[in-house]
Amino acid sequence: MSEATKTPGRSSGVMATPEEQKHSAPQEQPKKNDALHTDRGDTTIEETVVQKLAGMATREVPGVYSMGSAGRRAFSALAERIPGSQTNVSGGVSVEKGERQTAIDVSIVVEYGIPIVDVSQGIRQNVIQSVEHATGLEVLEVNVNVTDVHLPDDDQQDQQDQKTDLQ
Fold first, then answer.
1. How many domains does the chain have?
2. pTM for this entry
3. Is 108 in contact with 67 (CB distance < 8 Å)?
4. What is the 3-state secondary structure (H, E, C) of 127-162?
5. Fewer beta carbons below 10 Å: N end or C end of the chain?
6. What is the CATH number of the domain that holds 149?
7. Looking at the domain assignment, is residue 152 inside a domain?
């Protein structure tokens, strides 16, 4: 006879009834409470919320010119010309989110002359602080993908392109 079917206090060889086994079984551990999971209920946060928070926090860092890949930036530029459209603050941000933790990837274009390492560290600090403070989620990592460098000559080229578009 296995030890699992014996009831404490009974002599060996006497089987416990199913009801006794149920009551003597180890009790389920109570849920671990944190900011999102309390005795009064749970709070869930969608990935889009984390994306927007991370996008705003990234844009606040000096040296970040824009976010996303070239295709994403071109699409956003067209979308912003539509009257009544909103700026997409989550462009260039992808999120993997669990129940209590998240990992964030951001794609950026940096300003020429600003050290990329400094910009990356600033992004990590700002995103972690913003997301953890606003959501209560633990940010495991923030990966920064630098897709381009914005050169001062790029502004002059953009202005010339806009003038020819208007004519």
1. 1
2. 0.68
3. yes
4. HHHHHHHHHCCEEEEEEEEEEEEECHHHHHHHHHHH
5. C
6. 3.30.70.1350
7. yes
